[in-house]
Design brief:
The chain has about 475 residues and is an all-alpha fold. It is built from 23 helices and no strands. α8 packs antiparallel against α9 and α15 (about 305-320) packs antiparallel against α16 (about 325-335). The longest helix is centred in the first third of the chain and has 37 residues, at about 1-40.
Length: about 475
Amino acid sequence: MKKSRTMVIVSAILAFSGALALAQENHITLENGEAQQKAGQLPEKEEALPAAPSREPIVIGPSPAPVPAAVSQPAAAAGPVRAEWEFLKVKGADKDEDVQALMLPQLADWLARNPDDEYAGEALLLKAQLHLKLGDYKYALVDLLRHQREFPQSSSAAAAAGLFTETLEKKADKKSLAQLSGIAKIREPGEKADKLAALLEITAERAGEAFYEPLTSEFREFFNRFPLYAKSDELRLALADLHFKKEEYLPAELAYEKMIQLSAGSSLLARAKNSLGQVLSDHLKEYDAAIGVYQDIAASYPGTGEAWTAYGRLPKLAEKQKKYPLAVDTYEKIISLYPDKLEAYGAFQSEARVLREELSKPAEAAAVLNRLADKYNGEKAIEALFLAAEIARKDIKDPALEIKNYDRIVAEYPADPQAPKALFAAAGVYEKTNLDKTREYYAKVIEKYADNPLAKKAQKRLDALNGK
């Protein structure tokens, strides 16, 4: 086919060259005759010369094909937009895949320039047909969904609907069949831009991963076509979420950042920033950047669910990046801002751990644990006080502070099974410094907790101290 097309073009060029040469020769002869007549070399009246013999063009290969009516002068006279459409319409019907592949982007460009032309619906249908011929049924289905929303009353609507159903049943898997069938039944209210935006959002949400490539292309076309669309923040967030769901994390990062940059004042900013922080921390491993995002959320949107999420993620990232003062500060804010949440208890514990293990501030760690015991009762408080006593013994080397924590357990929870253990431990500390107190504390264990196994141990220690 390609060889035949080339031969036709060559033949046409040679034929045109022969005709041009003949016209030039006749023109020269006429000019010479006029010049001789003016010089008096020819009579004013002269019998007509016999006509010059016709020259047949030299033809190599088959005769040239006639010029299609679609690109004839009457079509061109309708204007360049219509002339280009007629050209694309004819060439789009060509059976040569190479021609189809070349026409497809040109057709898309024409649609982008002329979305409201009276033939735009027919052009969109042709675009879907070309995608199908080239094996891109997903692109075709998205084109046909758009056709339903944008050109429901056009002369091509019935053909587009039929092609959509046929393609969906033949090409799509069961999941996509159910998803797109449901989407096709939805009819959004509003202007054309609203309908197309709603179509993009719902398709991205329900079938975005399967139709990722054609959908991202449609998003780009929409933003070019409607640059001042009032709800572009919603649509940009939907595009960013689509990248995220597809696990295209770098495009997702850029899409979230662009949405944030272009949508100042949007009610969706906090959610977009939270998603951006998640992409940065969990997938791109850009921890410092994520910390900055979460700090911004916590400061800019106090009391919101997004701020709570930011507080939940920020201290862990700070610890990961060895930004321990930031971690401590964040734990303190969680304790202060969310005192009734279960996570506040964990914040107390984590803050004490960072102060003790990472910042070498054991006294401050012990103080945090005592604040924990002030807020929580029972097992949580007792556990914190035992840990504070351990810090006093191992890190601070302060027997008095250690005993103070034991005394608090006994005083506040005398009936708890841990009380005799605290009393016995205090007696052991006094044994190094104050024998009278030691005897007093062992005696209390024996007196108050006679049924506890520690009572027997206390009696043995007391007998040893008394020389028995």
